[in-house]
Design goal:
CATH class of the largest domain: Alpha Beta
Number of helices: 14
Strand order of the largest sheet: 3-2-1-4-5-6-7
Shape: elongated
Radius of gyration: 21 Å
CATH superfamily of the largest domain: Glycogen Phosphorylase B
Distance between the termini: 12 Å
Number of domains: 2
Largest sheet: 7 strands, parallel
Strand content: 15-25%
CATH topology of the largest domain: Rossmann fold
Length: 357
């Protein structure tokens, strides 16, 4: 018998969580899970893609986190569509679903947290504590997120660590042939939001330019600070060292043209972009935060760096001089990502759905 599931998320803008969701919905459909999606803020750029692949998208607009009319509409949607599982993502959607499903709703509730900081204020912490009895399970995408949920009083028995997964190609993408003097090609793919610290990324590139280190950084994606980053990238000598193409639905082809992935994030849950770069056979240079350390392990697939632009530039200078190290990083990255396949993630989610039902 098929399981009917509703995924609830703020929007379907192009981002790591949204792209991962689309991939897992495909995998779960193959296992008999019929999925639909509900957005709270806006449909987003990926909504048409979801619907074209057979995943209906509903919009229940919330004017505030606890919008009573929206909560009633969400509860009615869950009941009338006969969902067995309501799987929400991130704090805002989790609290809305928990509140809408208090008492009298047949569906089992799952809360997924993708961020190292699941809550960011006393009020949010209180709301999580008040509604933590509603979900049958919590999904943490990393051990770091699990520890944060434990800190906020979520019972350990309810927390399931299910890492993000990616489709694994049979072999890594070959490195492009570079001529003498060609720059080291860095790539970033993700949302343009403050937590990604893209100004630090630009500072790193600027420091490389000042020191004569040949680098070029392609920054893929969109978000609320895109205009500001475009403006900063167009000044201070960065014009030829950065490219901002906007949104792409084919990140893999950009990764294949790159040498190294770069992430300056202040916080992550378990970065999809790092997994995708490893699946392409590319190493990375990334901020030294707990989820990145968990991803790297002892694989040797990348470098974790502090906040000093000079420290980043030192590593990039070494890699620009010795391009053979890039291939070593890429091989280690491709080996590491074998532990995080899309099939494993889908099977763990399917087991969780069946278990709570």
């Amino acid at each position: 018998m098929a399981i009917r599931a509703l995924r609830v998320i703020a929007d379907l803008q192009v981002g790591g969580v949204q792209r991962m969701m689309l991939r897992t919905l495909r995998g779960l459909r193959d296992a008999g899970v019929e999925s639909e999606v509900c957005c709270q803020k806006a449909r987003g750029a990926l909504a048409d893609t979801f619907e074209s692949e057979g995943f209906p998208v509903h919009l229940v607009s919330f004017r505030s986190r606890l919008d009573l009319r929206a909560l009633i509409r969400l509860r009615r949607l869950i009941s009338e569509r006969g969902f067995d599982v309501v799987h929400a993502h991130q704090y805002q959607s989790n609290i809305a679903v928990n509140t809408a499903c208090i008492g009298g709703v047949r569906a089992r509730v799952i809360n997924s947290y993708h961020s190292f900081l699941p809550v960011r204020s006393f009020t949010q912490a209180l709301q999580l504590r008040l509604t933590r009895g509603v979900p049958s399970a919590f999904v943490a995408v990393s051990e770091a997120v699990r520890e944060a949920l434990l800190h906020h009083g979520v019972p350990a028995a309810k927390i399931h660590v299910i890492h993000n997964g990616v489709p694994l190609p049979p072999a890594p993408a070959p490195f492009p042939k570079r001529g003498d003097g060609e720059p080291l090609e860095l790539i970033y793919a993700g949302r343009f939001v403050n937590q990604k610290r893209l100004t630090l990324m630009l500072d790193v590139v600027k420091r490389c330019v000042e020191r004569g280190i040949p680098v070029h950084c392609t920054m893929l994606g969109e978000g609320p600070i895109l205009r500001r980053i475009r403006r900063l990238a167009g000044q201070g000598g960065l014009e030829g060292a950065t490219t901002l193409p906007g949104v792409t639905h084919d990140v893999s082809s950009w990764l294949a043209k790159s040498d190294l992935y770069i992430s300056t994030s202040e916080r992550e849950g378990f970065a999809n972009a790092l997994l995708e770069c490893c699946a392409a056979g590319r190493g990375f240079i990334a901020s030294d935060i707990a989820p990145h350390r968990e991803m790297l392990g002892d694989s040797g697939a990348g470098f974790l760096v502090g906040d000093s632009p000079d420290a980043w530039a030192d590593i990039l200078e070494r890699l620009a001089r010795d391009r053979s190290e890039l291939e070593r990083l890429g091989a280690a990255a491709f080996q590491r990502v074998q532990d995080f396949s899309e099939q494993v993630t889908c099977q763990k989610l399917l087991d969780l759905y069946r278990g709570i039902l």
